[in-house]
Amino acid sequence: MPNNESPPATAAPVASTPVAITLIEAITQALAWEMQDDDSVVVLGEDVGVNGGVFRATAGLSATFGTQRVLDTPLDETTIAGLTVGMASQGMKPVAEAQFDGFMYPMVDFIVCHAARMRYRTRGRLSCPMVLRVPWGGGIRAPEHHSEANESIFTNVPGLRVVMPSSPQRAYGLLLAAIRDPDPVIFFEPKRIYRQYKEVVADDGEALPLDVCYVLRDGSDLTLVTWGAQVKETLEAAEKLASEGISAEVIDVATLRPLDFATIAESVSKTGRCVIVHEAPKTAGFGAEIAARLAEESIYDLRAPVERVTGYDTHIPLFRLEMKYLPSVERIVAAARRAVAAG
């Protein structure tokens, strides 16, 4: 523990009756389960203790586990990142929060130069079992630096896992897996869907596998690949396409790095067409990596050019045009129609 004061006693976690909860509640449940199960897990960040975090993801944890394990830090992202790497390298399992995606940039030095290289630098003598939770993306009418979609910056860094859930069930299971992973994980949480809908989640401590894509809908005419908040619009687009006689398979990437390309390739070998949907700007967005892999490894399966439906190559506009910036059902459907018409 960080000092000599004893933490409050906690009972072993017990599975509760599954209930319908939001994505943000699933995050809280996963944190509470893992903190009960493993006293090396600590939570730290700006306002995560007394206030329960800016989005209340850590509400109630300080009262349950004490101020030694739920640490309110200064308003200093560089310090948060440094503390997190130091704790992780010395046997703890810190889960840090960056209040917003645009606040990550002061953390990059510690994430890229230290957390991601710890195992490589020490030839396996040390690892860095840390999680950085990041409220991610637009759609909540927040000001500048509060609506970034910057995942592709971190998918380019060897030694990092980059994970983004798209539902309460996947948020719960993937966060448990991320905390248990021996290496650093960037855990992007799409804040637009924090409280958008509820889903039954069993609070049973069962993790979901990392490094795999999830096929959410079977189809035969084209493959829709997406992640994060855009899963909702993509599934809605698939429903609309079905009413037009177009069968769309929907894949939630979930773990961006390392990418489970095999699942995407298998789908495209069946459908012959692919539309990639993401919120980040188009140029050098992670969709470009998927498109490049398809060109390299699945070119003979493609019957039409790969389409991308993305944000635009600008900062997300405030506030009136924000939803126009984000991929819409209409834009996804239009791209799918083009792909089907092309071959």
TrEMBL record:
MF annotations from Gene Ontology: oxidoreductase activity
Source superkingdom: Bacteria
Domain Transketolase-like pyrimidine-binding: 21-196
EC number of the protein: 1.2.4.4
Keyword terms of this UniProt record: Oxidoreductase, Thiamine pyrophosphate
InterPro entries on file: THDP-binding (IPR029061), Transketo_C/PFOR_II (IPR009014), Transketolase-like_Pyr-bd (IPR005475), Transketolase_C (IPR033248)
Pfam families referenced in this protein's UniProt entry, alphabetically: Transket_pyr, Transketolase_C
Coiled-coil parts of chain: none
Cofactor(s), by name: thiamine diphosphate
PANTHER family: 2-OXOISOVALERATE DEHYDROGENASE SUBUNIT BETA, MITOCHONDRIAL, 2-OXOISOVALERATE DEHYDROGENASE SUBUNIT BETA-RELATED
Protein name from the UniProt record: 3-methyl-2-oxobutanoate dehydrogenase (2-methylpropanoyl-transferring)
Species annotation: Lysobacter koreensis
